[in-house]
Amino acid sequence: ADVVPEKAAPAPEEDEPVAISSRERVIFPDSGQTKGDLADYYAAVAPIMLPFAARRPISLVRCPQGRAKKCFFQKHDSGSFGDAVHHVPIREKDGGSEDYLYVEDLRGLLQCVQMGTIEFHGWAARSDAVEMPDRMIFDLDPDEGLGFDDVKTAATDIRDRLADMGLVSFAMLSGGKGVHVVVPLSTGHSWDEHKDFARHFAEALSLAEPDRFVATMSKAKRKGKIFIDWLRNQRGSTAVLPYSARARSGAPVAVPIAWNELKTMDNAHPFSIDDAKRLLDRAGSKALAGWGFAEQSLPEY
Ligand code: ATP
Ligand code: MN
Ligand code: MN
Questions:
Q1: Domains defined along the chain, listed by start
Q2: What does pTM read for this prediction?
Q3: Where does the secretion signal sit in this chain (predicted)?
Q4: ipTM confidence score
Q5: Residues having CB within 6 Å of any atom of ligand 1
């Protein structure tokens, strides 16, 4: 009898589209967008999001039943994502190692969305160099009562202080309440050096203007002030990535913004996942050219 060669399992098709199930499931109940809308949003903005999101360890905010139900923050694989959600082992404090997640393309983003992901958060380091941070983020967290004007002034004051030290910075609307001031840096300094620099910078500001700024997390001390959250710069911390959707009312997104435009903004969530087209157009504009990129290193201080 003829020997029939055993058939190899078909290799996963690299460019096979990601199937999104339950496209009609409403994920944002107060504004009506569905899981399909969210997937379409990410497919549209992938070209402008991936330069910031690809090949970094990520954490996901997953809300499989929609943002109004239970959501959870996920750092590690639960085994079910797919071939475009990759693993990178990262040393833990206890000496062991854990696999973190990263994506490098649209399929990776969409496999996360298929699993109920709304938000993408990223490390300030690349997945192939996790011990070498390449950006610093000052996350401005205003106390409840503060208006957005105070946040805007705080952000531009921080920009000016950084400029005095020779550092170019960029503003991002978080899609929530605050602004992130992002400082791209060439690698070459350790996490501890980044964290110390960020802490000293925040402490100096709160010492100089104690009525406006605090550098400690305590909510009690934050009354009427802006917390300069420098803790985003510790090893293992993440910050929401540019163009990530937020699991908040109205399906807002985190958006890079030019310093000039920031002046005209009334809040930190002017764009939603309905605005992919506008976001793509903006990203190609002169004002946003080069956003988030600069050749500069952490100064000695
Ligand atoms: P906002 O402008 O409303 O403050 P934000 O994204 O800056 O929006 P923060 O509460 O300041 O929100 O959170 C800062 C970062 O902390 C988040 O972007 C995220 O990366 C991280 N974070 C949030 N929730 C968790 C969590 N449960 N576990 C670990 N890290 C978290
Ligand atoms: Mn914040
Ligand atoms: Mn914060």
A1: 35-122 (no CATH), 135-288 (3.90.920.10)
A2: 0.94
A3: none
A4: 0.92
A5: 73, 121, 139, 141, 174, 176-178, 229, 238-240, 268
